[in-house]
Design goal:
disordered N terminus; seven-stranded mixed sheet; alpha/beta; 26 helices; globular; about 15% strand; TIM Barrel; Chitobiase, domain 2; about 725 residues
Amino acid sequence: MPGGLEASLSPQAAATASAASTLSGTVDHSGTQRLSLMPLPRTTSVRQGVLRMERDFRFHVECAPNDQVLWSGVNRALQWVKNTTGLPLAQEVATAESTTPNGIFSIRVQKPATMIMGTDESSSLTVTPTSIVLNAPATIGVLRGLATFRQLVDRENGIYYLPAVSISDSPRYPWRGLMIDVARHFVHIDSIKRNIDAMEMVKLNVLHLHLSDNEGFRVESRVFPKLQLDGSEGQYYTQDAIRDLSAYAGARGILVVPEFDMPSHSISWLAGYPELSSSPGPFRPGNPPNVTIRPGMSQQEIMAETQALKIPAFDPTRETTYAFIDRFVEEMAELFPGHYFHIGADENNGAVWRANPKIVAYMKEHNLPDTHALQTYFVACVQAIVKKHGKQAVAWEEAYAAGQTQDLILQVWSPFARTDLAQTPMTDGNKLLVSRGFYLDTFLPAHVCYLGDALPRESGYGQDQAVLGGETAMWSELEDQWNMESRIWPRAGAVAERLWSPADVQNVEDMYRRLFRLGFMLDHASVNNLVDYDRHIRRFAGPLPVGPVRTLLDVLSPVKGYRRLAGLMQRPANERNSLAPLDEVADVVMVDSATKYDFRWALADYLRTRSAASEGKLRNLLMLWANNDALLQPYFAQSKELQEVSEHSRNLSDLANAALQFLNALSKDDSPEANQKAALEAALKVAKSVHGETEIAVVPEIEDLFLGKLEPEPKTYPLV
């Protein structure tokens, strides 16, 4: 395979390498040539020649000698070059004293800057056969340019090189975030740091940590220690760990935004401080009461029952509640140095307030017509506290009240309550973040996030507008320490591109080509996106060879939307708490199957050209799947997890056999006989079934083979 880093990856990572087989050469977003960058730059001009990386490669830096963020970034890039190429570079470390004018890579920055919202992140990068020049107005632009540099490095015949290219780059939106829920399932600091490393690679600049929810309170408070002692089951971050994490993110040009959810989603707060509650305790961290979801229930019926659940929440009528919040925010504002403080304020149905006579009397006395008005009062009080301590409040969209909410950053998320991005929140002077369509935990393929319609469609840069940007979100009801990185990466790269690149960058096929290559790069950079997947495959295989397990799991994907979450909600409490293992096949398989796209791209070529190469690719994969069920029989006997998808194995084998017979007829320029058509049609129908909360990802492509036409990817899927 020409180009790429595949040969330096683990054998496990190489198993999906063929899905991104065209990695070298060059492509800009207009499609004239091929580069494998993600996100794509604002403008790109590819030129003749390449710069070969040799042992004399060194950095020359022109910047303020005390710009620690810049020097840190340059030295990370230097170490990355050493680790990637294996070259014994003469330059051990880049410092103001060691930098020399004859460096091959020259970096020039006009002024030092740390990451604050609105910092100039633009840069220009020029590569010729003899030199690399990176210019930026401010330090953060250098970090973004270095990310581009790392993605440009390619390899062929053992030689590392960069294509000659001229790039001018700047982001579409200033706020480009990743939200990680560490409350429902605790995530260790090392994993968060790996996520930060991946964020730097794709130019995301905000790490939003959801630090409290019903299931857990995850930060040490020295003012109110029972928050973590009673609300975390012993799993929380010390203040020293948070300071270290903030510094780690800051060195990579990333802001950390803490979220402490209130007034609802607050059982973990109430476990240690039940006096905050509007209903009697005692409380312990864990899941609130769930809706009983009956077969055939509509989304409207589910939402109606949800509104009746008496879920514990803060008491917004007591002054002692706000005194507590004041002292807490004061402590956390010092701990988290960034300017933003997320207060949650989502999914509070008000039922527990309506059930409290004292709260009902308070509402009547203060002319608050309903519990939404009471929540608006609560949000305004907390917002004032946050402002008092020098921070800007952020809240989920439910915090908005027309004509009353002002100077909030509102995070739009709900796929069901469609907030109009062009109207009232803007006119009330609020800024917006878009997360609608960017939820990674709904198991929607990356192209759905990529083609989503929630962001405005303007293609210009630097507009003075209410939309600050957006965040992709990883809620952790179904993710934990052992599968989260493979759930986030490389898929978050598609959202990063949507927030950084021009609005007219919309080629899904090319996006997937670059996305899978990004996955290899992140694996090479020690992100666990492929390592976690490989580890679980070895666990399922036990003492047997991993090949047959991988063959099956590579073409499975989790059911889409909230169907898995709905199933989880019906399980016993001990199977859905924050300590319950997530170890089923559905917890492991990739949302975007590289093998599916390997097959899809071969099918596209076959239907267009009938080439022997593409037919051979299709035939090899179909034969692999047809024969795999027999190989897996011993595995089913020793793995209850694999037993849950054994029907898929048999159905995939039957489908592949039927598709092979169909393909054989096509390859002879014959029309498949009626019995061959019927066999494939019947196999397709059976293969569409769900087992173990997973689906066979290649069914649509085999159906396209049957129909003789490759259909476009669906732009969306039902969420329920």
